[in-house]
């Protein structure tokens, strides 16, 4: 009978012990990997849910009112000076400016989507009045004409969904204001009559539009003066 080669008992026991330790080590490593994966999945799911809730709030979600709890009825009545109890909301801008574009797109548009039926919204333009009944604009005469075009849109189309959409369209390509092609394209996109805008801006050899711009600039100046004079 042929003798079988066998390992000494001590070596067999040692090899088995090593295998057991390796299994335990691999088992612990697998458990750690599974735990880490589970934790990551839960974290990502929660983060994504929070993120989408911020960007896309439910249409039925109520707007928090705690921020306005300090406003008294008297304050509300004083603010609601427009017909229908609309609250005045005003932004002071210039037409040929990237900051105006960002303000309209990132701040005012999201707000107006929520409260457009509760506010009387107005864009008021910044500039410097001159002694000859004119206006000096920060980015030159082209910006003054852009301001007048936007004021004419507001004058002719009081619905903010129309005039504000038209204004935002112009502001998206603010560096092209007041080029005719841009104004025509935005008018077509927002159901605005280009010929009416043109007639408004050039009426009385431009005096009508300039008078609207001058009134708007004086309004902005008066607001800045009141803000500077208000005690901190």
Proportion of β residues?
5-15%
Number of distinct beta strands: 4
Instruction: Indicate the low-confidence ranges by residue numbers.
Output: 1-12, 32-81
Largest sheet: 2 strands, parallel
Rg calculated over all Cα atoms: 33 Å
User: What's the pLDDT, averaged over the residues?
Assistant: 74
Q: Looking at the structure, what is the overall shape?
A: globular
- Helicity range: 55-70%
Describe the structure.
With 232 residues, this protein is mainly alpha-helical. It has eight helices and four strands, in the order ααβαβββααααα. Strands 1-2 form a two-stranded parallel ribbon. The longest helix has 47 residues. The radius of gyration is 33 Å and the shape is globular.
Write the layout of secondary structure elements.
Layout: H1 9-55, H2 73-79, E1 87-93, H3 98-115, E2 119-125, E3 128-129, E4 135-136, H4 141-156, H5 160-172, H6 180-189, H7 194-202, H8 207-229
Parallel strand pairs: 1-2
Antiparallel strand pairs: 3-4
List key phrases describing it:
mainly alpha, two-stranded antiparallel ribbon, about 230 residues, about 60% helix
């Amino acid at each position: 009978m042929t003798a079988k080669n066998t390992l000494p008992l001590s070596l067999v026991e040692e090899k088995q012990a090593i295998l057991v330790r390796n299994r335990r080590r691999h088992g612990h490593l697998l458990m750690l990997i599974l735990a880490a994966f589970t934790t990551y999945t839960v974290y990502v799911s929660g983060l994504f849910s929070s993120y989408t809730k911020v960007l896309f709030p439910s249409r039925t979600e109520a707007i928090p009112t705690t921020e306005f709890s300090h406003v008294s009825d008297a304050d509300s009545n004083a603010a609601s000076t427009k017909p229908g109890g609309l609250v005045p909301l005003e932004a002071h801008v210039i037409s040929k400016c990237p900051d105006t574009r960002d303000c309209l797109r990132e701040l005012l548009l999201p707000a107006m989507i929520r409260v457009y039926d509760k506010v009387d919204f107005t864009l008021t333009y910044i500039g410097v009045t001159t002694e000859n009944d004119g206006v000096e604009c920060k980015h030159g005469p082209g910006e003054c004409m852009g301001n007048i075009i936007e004021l004419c849109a507001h004058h002719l189309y009081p619905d903010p969904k129309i005039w504000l959409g038209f204004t935002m369209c112009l502001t998206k390509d603010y560096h092209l204001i007041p080029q005719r092609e841009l104004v025509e394209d935005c008018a077509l996109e927002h159901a605005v009559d280009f010929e009416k805008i043109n007639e408004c801006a050039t009426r009385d050899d431009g005096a009508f539009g300039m008078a609207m711009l001058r009134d708007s600039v004086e309004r902005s100046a008066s607001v800045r003066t009141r803000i500077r004079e208000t005690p901190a």
